[in-house]
Amino acid sequence: MRHRAALLSLLLCAVASAATAQVMTADSQGKMTPVQALDQLRDGNARFLANKPRTHDWPKTVAATSSGQFPFAAVLSCMDSRVPPEIVFDQGIGDLFSVRVAGNVVDEDDLGSLEYAAKSGVKLIVVLGHTRCGAVHGAIDNVELGNLTALLGKIKPSVVAAHCSDTPARSASPRSRRRTCASPCATSAPAAPTSRPPWTQARSSWSAPCTTW
Ligand SMILES: [Zn+2]
């Protein structure tokens, strides 16, 4: 009986350790391929969607990465508080370079950051857009607000290319308004992707392709 209890305990420990995030090292980064990096993000997003994230020993991870970092991917994403890359991809400290700016557009500073990430050995760069993006919404509405005006100016060419407009007419509730793009959407619109990458789908928050509001 005692032997069976010990065996069960051992099995439970094995299951627990399998779900514990491992810290990226120079060796694991070097051996990873771009396809494997993409698969790792897809798997992480699947865990997020299933509400079954890995366990993270944060103090241990902080200590393990104190002398160096070896992320396997860089993610350029919006600053939107509802789309934190490390959470929606179920990744830990030291796994991702994260560049975040409203509307996930780039200027020289952001490009420089991504170039550093590439030089540091990442296998993949992801541009992560999302639905109901306030920055895209602002660009459509020609919002002008301090330095934000120039940022929205970087999004407007994609809005124009995607022929976004209100449909069919504005309802009484602003939150119920939907903006869709004439088909087909421009593939160059980074904040309004034409297709829904399965690894970035977040439950019901992802709406039909080309919908930005
Ligand atoms: Zn956004």
Outline of the structure:
With 213 residues, this protein is an alpha/beta fold.
Keywords:
single chain, 213 residues, alpha/beta, Beta-carbonic Anhydrase, Chain A, 2 domains, three-stranded parallel sheet, two-stranded antiparallel ribbon, 39% helix, disordered C terminus
What does it look like?
- The protein is α/β, with parallel strands linked by helices and 213 residues long.
- It folds into two domains: 20-128, 3-Layer(aba) Sandwich (Beta-carbonic Anhydrase, Chain A), CATH 3.40.1050.10; 131-213, no CATH class.
- The chain has eight helices and five strands, in the order ααααβαβαβααββ.
- It has helices at 2-18, 26-31, 34-49, 58-64, 85-88, 108-119, 134-140, 148-162; strands at 73-77, 96-100, 124-128, 164-167, 178-181.
- Helix 5 (85-88) links the parallel strand 1 (73-77) and strand 2 (96-100).
- The protein is elongated and about 45 Å long.
- The site of zinc ion (ZN) has 7 residues, from helix 7.
Q: Helices, strands, pairings?
A:
Layout: H1 2-18, H2 26-31, H3 34-49, H4 58-64, E1 73-77, H5 85-88, E2 96-100, H6 108-119, E3 124-128, H7 134-140, H8 148-162, E4 164-167, E5 178-181
Helix pairs in contact: 7-8
Zinc ion binds next to helix 7.
Give helix % range.
Answer: 25-40%
Low-pLDDT stretches are: 5-18, 168-174, 183-213
Ligand inventory: zinc ion
**CATH architectural name of the largest domain:** 3-Layer(aba) Sandwich
Tally the helices: what do you get? 8
- DSSP strand (E) fraction? 5-15%
Distance between the termini: 60 Å
Overall average pLDDT: 79
CATH superfamily of the largest domain: Carbonic anhydrase
Provide the spatial order of strands within the biggest beta sheet. 2-1-3
**How many independent structural domains?**
2
What does the radius of gyration come to? Answer: 21 Å
**Structural class, from secondary structure content?**
alpha/beta
The geometry reads as elongated
The CATH class designation of the largest domain is Alpha Beta
The CATH topology name of the largest domain reads Beta-carbonic Anhydrase, Chain A
Number of strands: 5
The secondary-structure element order is HHHHEHEHEHHEE
* Biggest sheet record: 3 strands, parallel
